[in-house]
Design a protein that fits this description.
Length: about 900
Amino acid sequence: MQSFLHKVVSEVLAQNNSHSDLSFVLPNKRSGVFLKKILKQKAASNSFLPKVLSIEDFVKDISGFESLDSINLLFEFYKVYKEHTAKENLDSFDNFSKWAPILIQDFNDLDSNLLDSEPILSYLSDTKRIEHWKLDGAGESQMIDSYLAFFDKIIIYHREFTKHLIQSKSGYQGLIYKIACDKLSAFISKRKGVKYVFAGFNALNKAEEHIIQELLGNQLAEIYWDHDNFYRQSNNQSEQFFKRYEKTWNYYRSNEFKWKSDLINSSKTIHLHGLPKNISQIKHVGSILKELNTNGSIEDTAIILGNEKLLPTLLNSIPREINTANITMGYELQNVPLSSFFHALFKLHLNQAKLNKKGSFYYKDLLSLINDPLLKESRESLPEFEERLKTLINKELFISEELLMEMVHDSVDLSNLFQLLFLNWNNNVDLLLQKIISTIKILNQNQVITPLRREHLFRFYNIFLEISNLNDKFRFIENLKTLYQLFQQILKTEKLSFQGEPLEGLQIMGLLESRVLDFDTLIITSLNEGYLPASGGNNSFIPLDVKLERKIPTFFEKDAIFSYHFFRLLHRAKNVYLIYNNITDDFGSGEPSRFIRQLKVSKELGLLDKVKFREAVIHPQLNHDPLVLSKIDKTEELIEKLKRSAENGFSPSALMNYIRNPLDFYKRSVLGIKEFKKTEETIAANTFGTIVHDTLEQLYSPYLNSVLKPELLKKMVANVENEVEDQFKKNYSIKAIKSGKNLLAFEIAKQFVLNFLDYELKQVQKGRKIILRGLEVKTEMIHFHAGLNLPIKLRGKIDRIDEVDGVLRIIDYKTGKVNLNQLKLKDWGQLCQDDKYSKSFQVLTYAYMYLNSMKSDVDQVSIKTGIVSFKNLNQGFMPFNGKVLTEEVFEAYKRELDKLFQEIFNIEIPFQEKELPVFNFLKN
């Protein structure tokens, strides 16, 4: 089927002999590229091609004004704002930049719709005063006075801002449109014999309507609409525009409305595919493309991204056999991965000031910047960097500038880069901007950087250069906070443009980029409310009722515009895939677009009887393979490593690791890999336990082999706080206990120790005779495994050994909660098989080793082994099985221990992973 642009060109060229006096005016620049291709095909080879303009460029030609971008407008407006605002009511530039873009957009709406702004803005001021009016005038605050003064000033801001821009012959779009209308008569008088062809428009503002009507009335223009009878028949929102133009324009009293057609209800197939969430939609697009490419060509295929943030995912999902694709859409800079580097850089220095840590940086902020992919590429010049960084981060929560520079002292490139990133970041904004610009230059020199990232860097380089130039001119950015605020504002409005060949291959675009264009095959994604159409809203100082009364466009018109762009795409398409998220969450996200419902209703009403609908819910293919647990097969070499480990000795904790997860035992005890040590921002559980253990050791050490007396215990109580502080200083950081969770940890550690001393005091007061025999006792022994003919060293450290009323007790402290049932064992076969009994295994191993070191038999000494749990101190000492150990107990224990070693050293039994969380490991 002939496209809309082909049809327009054919008719216009047939009616006009001279093509050099023709100018085509289109809604956007992209459609002009396609139009020029058609003109080259259809125009005579020996003639001049007509001019092709976007509507914005055409209006700028009439006005003689240049359009300013959003950043320049912000600075120009603040200059006017400062000149006409009392000093006491003046907002800082960073606060101003939050609300000024909204006000500029309001000015734009007023001017582009040729409205007298003063009555509307005056009405707005009066409305605000009525909202805050009180009969007695009491209770007014300075804040309300400033708020009302602002609305009183809006008229002045608009008037003076307009004057200021007119003097420089520049402005925002609405002002340029208004100026163009004022200059239109002079423009028309100089354009005799010229013809302008307007094509593909739908929603025009009042300025555009006025310009086009004047040109039509002076026979200097023709206009072609891409209209369809479906809009009228279905009472579609889009019809409101065409209906108004046809009824109110004088031109249509004597001229035909071109064109009305029946294209939507023509032979085509619409596939409605529902899939869960975003990624599955994009992966499904890849499947569709693969099928289309197999069955023919994708030359006349377009993908319309409803959610433009999914562009990177889409690019990774295009089948490899499709080697030509053109992206015609701006990608918001805030979604470019490189933006994270600059966010991290700003936050590092802003948090430094916020935390009042001049000369040092919070380690998480530092890691966020240093581990950014952009810097990782630059770190490759220093192979030792990773190890040095880990050592540095594990020392302190705040890393000094000196330590950072010392870390890279032997790399000239990194030293230069780190000086720019970390040193002398005061509030001299000019210096900061130069540092950022110089940083980008250095990063760009990296040979391993990808071409795409280089292009991103260049875009950010231009942004900071423009900010620097503007600040040189206006001096509005006074500190780092304001600079960051402006940077964030720019990221929301600026887009990264892609370069490509728009006339070849697969086309990827947003909905607005598709205006006036036609494709045989369409794939439209994210067809959900909030994306297509985009979410509504009234982000404006002008109330909705005022906009409705004065016919200023609102989100109602915005919805109608989206509706037209969507349905117009269906005019000439033959194969349409409409893909949407069919999973609705608790907040309503995932609701299918109203456009889908309108199509279905229209089909039911018989308005789309020639259209085939194929609806399906697509279930993404999932990997149903069962979880395969890792395993390491044992070899003769590995068995030899195990024997060497046995010579060094196994601790009860190492053997418990095997019971819990043999693969962890292999990593730690065979390969020598340690668990990754993270920086403790809040004290870790093992460090907390060490502090409690060491505090008790220091308090009790002077009284070894002494009978505990009440006065000794009371003396210990008086020293608890100082001793806990000393242990925090030794094992963690005394600075950290001043506030927050670490202060709570300090108080809990202190209370644990006090509670234990109180428990001991009560035992002594009841007449119990307690004699300390050892604290943090290191012990080891050789256990000979007869079946393996192998001596195996067992080693460990017992927290406390005491004697209570003649019974020897082997005690292990636990700062976590332990219950009595964890120390009760009925089935000995479970001791080395079930992790539930790990506490029993541990204390039995300690007893076995200590008894061996005494060189005594169990029948010669009364001995118990067990646990004291500080979180369950009301249970006191909890002995294994609640009894004194016997020869039968030790024989059963040794039998199970031998079975355990038999399994560990059995070459036929691999180290098999269990279904348990696996630790992060760091090679020693």
